[in-house]
UniProtKB/TrEMBL annotation:
Task of the protein: Responsible for the release of ribosomes from messenger RNA at the termination of protein biosynthesis. May increase the efficiency of translation by recycling ribosomes from one round of translation to another.
Family of the protein in this entry: Belongs to the RRF family.
Top-rank taxon: Bacteria
One Gene Ontology MF term: ribosomal large subunit binding
HAMAP family on file: RRF
Coiled coil: 139-166
UniProt xrefs under InterPro entries: Ribosome_recyc_fac (IPR002661), Ribosome_recyc_fac_dom (IPR023584), RRF_sf (IPR036191)
Domain Ribosome recycling factor, residue spans: 22-182
UniProt name for this protein: Ribosome-recycling factor
Compartmental location: Cytoplasm
Organism the protein comes from: Ereboglobus luteus
Alphabetized UniProt keyword annotations: Coiled coil, Cytoplasm, Protein biosynthesis
Main location class: cytoplasm
Amino acid sequence: MSQPILTDMQVKMKKALEHTLHEFSQIHTGKASPTMVEAVMVEAYGSTMRLKECAAISTPDARMILIQPWDKGITQSIVKGIQIANLGFNPLVDGANVRVPLPELSRERRQEMVKRAHGMAEDGRVQVRSVRRDAMDALKKAEKDGDISEDELKRCEKEVQAATDQTIKEIGEHLAKKEKELTTL
């Protein structure tokens, strides 16, 4: 009976970790990456869609993002979408393409990014702890209902805590790596 609870907990913790890592990938470190702009919302064809759904995004070099719209008519909408997203980029139209040069990060901006990364990591830890609480509650309810024994409850609680500690440790390791990326020039 305890196995579905533990399996569900592991899946949810993995999702919380993946979400946190995805959030980290959106913090730019001065090195160009398509993930920096692919979620930008663009007005196209009478609706709003993600940039990655209406253009090819590449990085020809470490300080430039190149966006090639599949329809030349939405080039200005892409520029407007990037400006509205307030990412700190100044897109330039180059024929049918949009070039996004990355500005050099100042020390203050780097520290701001580090703070943002710490906030994202804390959000991830909170999600993991929430999953732990839900799993513990489900296990205690199962023990109260007589579905699992007290010994099994104790064993499962240790498993839940071990999984929680491991996931939080992974978030911390990725945060340290991101912080090092952001602070090294």
